[in-house]
Design goal:
With about 150 residues, the protein is of the alpha+beta class. The protein has five helices and ten strands, in the order ααβββββββαβββαα. The longest helix is centred in the last third of the chain and has 34 residues. The radius of gyration is 16 Å and the shape is globular.
Length: about 150
């Protein structure tokens, strides 16, 4: 029940019914990571949606010969969303900063879940669109700031 309550507070699943949340949780894989453990590696295949249940994860990207920190993910945040829209590779490396627990749902499992729960699907797709829009706006702000700093 605790996991279902947690999922209810994740933006992508906020409109799911209790039964849908229970079925969703049953379809997920829980993994634990210690500080420094790599969860996803930039350039490697990722075909799953991931939700940070607890802990903190840092997203980094290789730029020339340096690893650049992009952001820290906190409890309830998701990653890997683009892989459920289109097969692809991880665009960043995600590494646990603290002891962390991650729920993962492979793309095929999520597709089956959404097909079997059409009401959940009707709520999920608009929620993911809003979430990706928010991230795009944040990225635009970061890029704008980067160019303003480098012009100065």
């Amino acid at each position: 029940m605790e996991d279902v309550n947690f999922l209810k507070n994740v933006t992508l699943f906020a409109e799911f019914s209790p039964d849908e949340l229970t079925a969703l949780r049953r379809s997920m894989i829980a993994s634990r990571f210690g500080p420094g453990d790599v969860i996803l590696e930039e350039g490697n295949a990722n075909r799953a949606l991931h939700i940070l249940k607890s802990g903190r994860i840092r997203a980094t990207r290789r730029v020339q010969d340096r690893e650049v920190s992009l952001c820290d993910l906190l409890e309830g945040q998701t990653f890997g969303e683009l892989s459920i829209i289109e097969d692809g590779v991880a665009s960043a490396t995600l590494r646990a900063v603290t002891d962390s627990e991650v729920f993962s749902m492979p793309m095929q499992t999520l597709a089956t879940f959404l097909r079997e729960h059409p009401n959940a699907a009707a709520n999920f797709w608009p929620a993911i669109a809003v979430d990706l829009r928010r991230r795009l706006l944040q990225t635009n702000d970061l890029v704008r700031s980067y160019f303003e700093i480098n012009r100065a």
